[in-house]
Amino acid sequence: MDFGGFSHKGKGKAKESIVLCGCGLPAKKAQGLTDENPFRRFYGCEGYKTLLDYGFFKWIDEGRPFGWQKRALLEARHKIWQKDHTIMELKKTIAKFQSDWAENAEFEEDIINGFLKLCRDVFFSSKRVRAL
Length: 132
Hints:
- By secondary structure, this protein is of the alpha+beta class.
- It folds into 2 domains: 1-65, no CATH class; 66-132.
- Helices cover 49% and strands 14% of the residues.
- The chain contains 1 helix and 5 strands; from the N terminus they run βββββα.
- It has a 3-stranded antiparallel sheet, with no helix packed on it. The protein has a two-stranded antiparallel ribbon with strand order 1-2.
- β1 and β2 form a beta hairpin.
């Protein structure tokens, strides 16, 4: 399998290698999410799972995680997924509150206007009663 060429970018800085895919574009960096390779970094074709996919793949991290490191990475991944789920649920709750608030704001205005009208009516009625 051809892993493409390497090039460098930057002037006067620490040079970062750019891995090129067989299609000539810079390979995209990504992280594994599988139980076998949690957070293990790799290069892949920019056109992955499209018609432009060259099938390019190369590990950045040569060694696989194992032992306590692998367990720690799996636990971290699980916590991240839990937090993502919590964030998604909170966003749904906020959206519902915002929607409810917008609906209630209209009702509140009607209630306040009705209350003010009632106060005026009571005030003027009491003035008329005193006048009698």
